[in-house]
Write a structure and sequence with these properties.
Number of helices: 12
Radius of gyration: 35 Å
CATH topology of the largest domain: Outer membrane efflux proteins (OEP)
Structural class: alpha+beta
Strand order of the largest sheet: 1-2-3-4
Helix content: 55-70%
Number of strands: 4
Number of domains: 2
Distance between the termini: 65 Å
CATH architecture of the largest domain: Up-down Bundle
Largest sheet: 4 strands, antiparallel
Strand content: 5-15%
Order of helices and strands: HHHHEEHHHHHEEHHH
Shape: elongated
CATH superfamily of the largest domain: Outer membrane efflux proteins (OEP)
CATH class of the largest domain: Mainly Alpha
């Protein structure tokens, strides 16, 4: 677990642990309950997942299996013992014993042990890659859940305002101050926002369940508390001029591919060295014979078993090894190209999401507030009617909903950027959602 712990500390600043004993499990439960005792942040959510997710623990079990395989490959081959007993119809008796060892396996043991160590190192990196994948997926699930909860809270307030506006339009219509068109516009907006609130509430449940799965929680631990809103944007966006170089240097999956290539190169050299000697076994043998007169004779010697390459000179194995090696070379080059492209794309998406969300926070929402305040002043001065004021309120609601979604998309893009540089996979859905009030935006601008 040393390699996994180092990568988790460097890339995530988090602790990891393999649960091997009941004491380990109890210590984990205590730590998780302590973290669940306060409002979750993205960092505490990731730490809970790394300690509590059973799928990650299964990956660590695979690492333990790989370690056992490495130890097995570093041991000399076991000798074989044969015992032959033959008796005829008369007093003749023949007993033959032999102890045979694989000499070729003994000679190549150092090289095979080194290859086994490389395989185990790859298993360590695969466990680290699974750790990163879970961490970044938990972070994404957290931002989706909190963003959905913030959207529901705002839509619930907007629904109350829309309901009041619809009721006002009905009363004005009863007095003859509002025509059917104005009444219908307020009523349909109220109906739209009610439907979208129901959709958003369902999304909250689904996103929360997704977070629960990443955290590995069940039973009494499901009542954890999330914050009411997403974190504010950072004051400055990350500036990663050498994003491609960083990704190629730090990506764990590329490190695994490089190690696979090195292991194949060593195995290819081993194949070349043993291409003609497929089986070479030698050992001690003795033979006890008893003749008809009752005399006994005991003979000792050595036994060698060698496969003679008459039909197969090892060319097939050499060609196979060479083809597998070149396949790994091409896959590594392809992965390097893809990693560079993913890093560039992730950074562009990150900067774009930062700029868009910042634009709504610094420009659109403040301007919408100014417009709303000015419209209210004009309404109080009887320069505009109530429906113009309500139309502006609808536009402000739409802008706020889009701003919430833009902020959520920024934090998802930030998680994707870290995954693109360190490894662990990016989210499949770039466009997380559209403005739920888009259906009514056309109606809102016709006043």
């Amino acid at each position: 677990m040393g390699v996994v712990a180092n990568i988790a500390d460097h890339e995530l600043n988090k602790d990891v642990a393999a649960i091997r004993t009941p004491d380990d499990a109890e210590a984990m439960r205590i730590a998780v309950r302590r973290l669940l005792g306060r409002t979750l942040t993205a960092e505490t959510a990731v730490q809970i997942a790394l300690l509590n997710n059973r799928g990650l623990q299964a990956a660590y079990n695979e690492l333990a299996l790989a370690e056992a395989e490495m130890v097995e490959a570093s041991l000399p081959p076991n000798p074989r013992i044969s015992y032959l007993w033959k008796a005829g119809s008369g007093p003749e008796l023949e007993i033959e014993r032999a102890i045979v060892a694989d000499i070729l396996a003994l000679v190549t043991l150092p090289v095979r042990s080194e290859i086994a160590r490389e395989r185990f190192r790859q298993a360590q990196l695969r466990a680290a890659l699974e750790t990163l994948r879970l961490a970044f997926e938990t972070r994404r699930a957290y931002y989706r859940a909190v963003g959905a909860q913030e959207l529901v809270a705002f839509l619930a307030q907007a629904q109350l305002s829309a309901e009041a506006a619809a009721q006002l339009a009905v009363r004005l219509g009863e007095t003859g101050s509002a025509n059917k068109l104005d009444q219908a516009r307020e009523q349909v907006f109220y109906a739209d926002i009610t439907a979208q609130l129901a959709v958003a509430r369902q999304a909250v449940s689904s996103e929360r369940e997704g977070l629960i799965r990443s955290l590995g929680l069940w039973d009494g631990d499901l009542k954890f508390k999330l914050p009411n809103a997403l974190p504010a944007l950072p004051r400055r966006a990350q500036s990663l001029a050498a994003i491609e170089v960083e990704a190629v240097r730090r990506r764990v999956d590329l490190q695994i591919s490089r190690m696979e290539l090195d292991a194949l190169a060593r195995a290819y050299g081993l194949t070349q060295a043993t291409r003609f000697i497929n089986i070479l076994e030698a050992g001690y043998a003795d033979k006890l014979e008893k003749d008809k007169e009752g005399g006994r004779s005991f003979k000792r010697g050595f036994e060698i078993d060698l496969q003679i390459p008459i039909f197969d000179f090892g060319e097939v194995r050499v060609r196979q090894a060479e083809a597998v090696y070149m396949q790994a070379v091409n896959r590594l080059l392809e992965s390097a190209v893809n990693v560079r492209s993913e890093a560039r794309d992730a950074y562009r998406v990150y900067r774009s999401a930062y700029d868009i969300s910042g634009h709504y926070q610094r420009e659109v929402l403040p301007l919408r507030k100014i417009i709303s305040d000015e419209m209210l002043l004009r309404y109080n001065a009887m320069q505009i009617d109530v429906f113009s004021l309500l139309a502006e309120a609808r536009q402000r609601i739409l802008a706020t909903v889009t701003a919430i979604q833009a902020k959520r998309d920024f934090w998802l893009a930030a998680a994707d950027l870290k995954a693109a540089v360190a490894g662990g996979g990016r989210s499949g859905n770039r466009n997380e959602g559209t403005n739920p009030m888009a259906a009514s935006s056309g109606e809102s601008g016709r006043h």
